[in-house]
Each structure stands twice: as structure tokens, then as C-alpha cells.
Automatic annotation (TrEMBL):
Matches recorded under InterPro entries: Spore_V_AE, SpoVA
Protein name per UniProt: Stage V sporulation protein AE
Keywords of this entry: Membrane, Transmembrane, Transmembrane helix
Keyword Signal annotated: no
Gene: spoVAE
TM ranges: 6-24, 93-112
Top-level lineage group: Bacteria
Length: 116
């Protein structure tokens, strides 16, 4: 059943993104920003963790999870290190994903011929 709910929740997030594209005519940057901010707001309100517990990968794979990670890391580090922890917590939690994206992007650019 977890696979079903992961599919439904992940699909719903994708449908929301597609609606932002098609109905509101937003460009990819605007849509990405909105979804990240929504994920951050939901985590700030304490609603994203229950969604992850319910849907698993359906909630952790989409871009909304990046906003969740930013706020979650900031709040976690703020409890132990105060105001400085807000900034360092965001980078501590998301640095592995961002680093992997940069490294794999460079490797992909080296291996494959970019069209330009």
C-alpha cells in the first residue's frame, strides 16, 4: 500500500507543478521556486514530516522536499547553535545533494557533447 500512496502523493505534487505551468503560464524557474517555498512552509508548520511518514518516496523525491530539507536543517541547528545554526543547518543538510548534482553535471558534460 505504501507504493500506492507514494505514487498518489508524488503524482499530486507533479500535477500541481503542471497546473502552474499550463493554467498560470509560469516558467520553470517560477514553478520550481513556488514548489520549494511550499515545501519549506509545510515543514515550518510541521506538516511535511507527517506527509513523508505517510507517502515515503512520494514526498521525499519531488522538489518540495528540498524546501523541507532547508527548513528542517535550519530549525534543527537553530536549536543547538542559535542564529548561526539557521544558516549552517541549511547547508549541512542539503550539501550532499547539491554537491552530487554539481559533480554529476560536470561528469555528464565531459562525457556527452552538449548541444548549444
Amino acid at each position: 500500500m505504501i507504493f500506492f500512496w507514494a505514487f498518489v502523493v508524488g503524482g499530486a505534487i507533479c500535477v500541481i507543478g503542471q497546473i502552474l505551468f499550463d493554467v498560470f503560464k509560469l516558467n520553470p524557474g517560477q514553478t520550481l521556486t513556488i514548489l520549494v517555498v511550499v515545501g519549506a512552509i509545510l515543514d515550518g508548520l510541521g506538516l511535511y514530516e507527517p506527509l513523508i511518514d505517510f507517502a515515503g518516496a512520494g514526498a521525499t523525491v519531488p522538489i518540495t522536499s528540498f524546501g523541507n530539507s532547508l527548513v528542517h536543517g535550519a530549525m534543527q541547528e537553530a536549536e543547538t547553535h542559535g542564529l548561526v545554526g539557521v544558516v549552517t543547518g541549511m547547508f549541512e543538510v542539503t550539501s550532499a545533494g547539491i554537491s552530487a548534482a554539481i559533480i554529476f553535471g560536470v561528469i555528464g558534460a565531459i562525457i556527452f557533447k552538449p548541444k548549444g
